[in-house]
Design brief:
The chain is of the alpha/beta class. Helices cover about 60% and strands about 5% of the residues. The chain has helices at about 5-10, 20-30, 45-55, 70-80, 95-105, 115-180, 185-200, 205-215, 225-230, 240-245, 245-255, 260-270, 290-305, 315-325, 335-340, 345-370, and strands at about 10-15, 35-40, 60, 85-90, 110. α7 runs antiparallel to α16 and α12 (about 260-270) packs across α13 (about 290-305).
Length: about 375
C-alpha cells in the first residue's frame, strides 16, 4: 500500500467510467500523458470492483449508465473512498441534477457535447485540489507527529523536574529530622500516615499530593528556631515559647512563594492549630483549620507518642489510638478522629515499620557509597 507522500509524487491514476466505448476512447486519448495512468471501465459495478483492487487519484464517470446510475455510483464511491475527486459527464442539461451531484461530493459537472480542453482543464484542477489536500493532510500528520514527540519530551522533562523536586524535598525533610529528632524519618512517617488517613476520608488526586508535601515539610519553619530552644531537653520558658510558636508562620513564608508548594504552605501554617481554638499561631477554630492540617494534627500526635524520646520510651500504637480518641472534639476534628479510629492500630504500626525499614536501607546505602 502506498503512503500519502508516495501518492503525491507518483503518476495520477485516473478511472474513466462510461458505457459507450467511443466516449471512453476519446477521453483516454485526450488525457494521454506521462503524468497520468489511465484505466477504463464500461459500467459502475466494474468500476467499483477496480476501485477495491487499487486506489485512484480521480474518477471521470458518465451520469446515465445501465445498471447502477452515475448518482448511485457517486454515493457508493464516496462511501468507499470519500477523498477521491469525481467528475461527472452527462448529456442532460439539468440544473437540479448538477446541484445534486455537487452536494454528493462531485468536484465538477460537465455536459455533452464536451470540450476536450475543458475536460483537460477540469481534470488538472481536480488533481491539483486533491494534491493540495493530500499535501495538507501529510503536513497535518507530520505536525501531529512532531507535537506528540515534543509532548513526550515535555512530559519527560517535567517528570525529571518533579523527581528533582521530590528528592530535594526529601533531603530537606531528612535534614530537619536529623537536626531535631533522635528518631529519624519522622517527616516520612507522618506523610505516609497522613496519606493513609486522607484516603480513609475520601481525598484523592492533588489533595493527596499537597497534603503529603505539607506533612513532609511541616517543620521547615524550625530552621528559624535557635538550637538552644529547639534541642532544649527541659521545659521551655515563656520567651522561648514565643520563638517556638513562630515556626509555622516562618515555614509558611518560606513555602508560599514557591508556586507548586503554595497549597502545602497552608497546611504548614495551620499544623499546630487545635479544633477548640487554643492552638497557634492564629487560634483557628473548627472548620477554619484547613482539612489537611486537621488530618496532620492527628497523625503527628500518633508519631510523637509511638517514637522514642529522651525522657521516655515509645508508647504502643494502642495507647496512641486511645489518646487520639480521648482528644476528639478538643485537640482534634471529631470527623477526622472517627476516620482514624476506623483504621486498626496494627495498620498504623505496619506503616511505621515499613517507613523505618526503607529509611534504614537508605542510610545503609549512604554508608556504603561513602568514599
Amino acid at each position: 500500500m502506498r503512503t500519502m507522500l508516495e501518492a503525491v509524487s507518483t503518476p495520477a491514476r485516473i478511472l474513466i467510467v462510461d458505457d459507450e466505448e467511443e466516449i471512453r476512447d476519446v477521453l483516454m486519448t485526450s488525457l494521454e500523458d506521462p503524468a497520468f495512468e489511465l484505466t477504463g471501465s464500461s459500467n459502475a459495478m466494474d468500476a467499483l470492483d477496480k476501485m477495491r483492487d487499487a486506489r485512484f487519484s480521480l474518477v471521470i464517470s458518465d451520469l446515465r449508465m445501465p445498471g447502477l446510475s452515475g448518482l448511485d455510483f457517486l454515493r457508493t464511491l464516496k462511501e468507499c473512498d470519500p477523498d477521491v475527486p469525481v467528475i461527472l459527464i452527462t448529456g442532460v442539461r439539468d440544473l437540479e441534477t448538477a446541484v445534486e451531484t455537487l452536494r454528493l461530493g462531485a468536484c465538477d459537472y460537465i455536459t455533452k457535447p464536451f470540450d476536450l480542453f475543458a475536460i483537460r482543464r477540469s481534470v488538472e484542477n481536480a488533481l491539483e485540489r486533491s494534491r493540495l489536500a493530500l499535501e495538507n493532510r501529510c503536513y497535518q500528520m507530520e505536525l501531529e507527529r512532531l507535537v506528540r514527540e515534543r509532548t513526550l519530551e515535555l512530559h519527560g522533562a517535567l517528570k525529571e523536574i518533579e523527581e528533582g523536586y521530590h528528592f530535594t524535598l526529601e533531603a530537606l525533610a531528612a535534614a530537619l529530622d536529623a537536626r531535631e529528632h533522635e528518631t529519624r524519618a519522622h517527616s516520612q512517617r507522618v506523610r505516609e500516615y497522613a496519606s493513609r488517613l486522607a484516603r480513609q476520608l475520601g481525598l484523592a488526586g492533588d489533595d493527596l499530593i499537597h497534603l503529603g508535601r505539607g506533612a513532609l515539610l511541616h517543620d521547615v519553619g524550625k530552621i528559624g528556631v535557635p538550637d538552644s530552644i529547639l534541642l532544649k531537653p527541659g521545659k521551655l520558658t515563656p520567651d522561648e515559647w514565643v520563638h517556638m510558636k513562630r515556626h509555622p508562620q516562618v515555614g509558611y513564608d518560606i513555602l508560599q512563594s514557591i508556586r507548586f508548594l503554595a497549597p502545602a504552605a497552608k497546611i504548614v501554617l495551620a499544623h499546630q492549630e487545635r479544633w477548640d481554638g487554643t492552638g497557634y499561631p492564629n487560634c483557628l477554630h473548627g472548620d477554619e483549620i484547613p482539612l489537611g492540617a486537621r488530618i496532620f494534627a492527628v497523625v503527628d500526635t500518633l508519631d510523637a507518642m509511638t517514637s522514642d524520646r529522651p525522657y521516655r520510651k515509645a508508647l504502643s500504637f494502642q495507647t496512641a489510638w486511645e489518646e487520639v480518641y480521648r482528644c476528639s472534639g478538643s485537640q482534634f476534628d471529631p470527623d477526622v478522629v472517627e476516620a482514624f479510629l476506623n483504621i486498626e492500630p496494627g495498620v498504623w504500626k505496619e506503616i511505621h515499620d515499613l517507613v523505618n525499614c526503607r529509611h534504614q536501607a537508605s542510610e545503609a546505602g549512604d554508608v556504603l557509597c561513602q568514599r
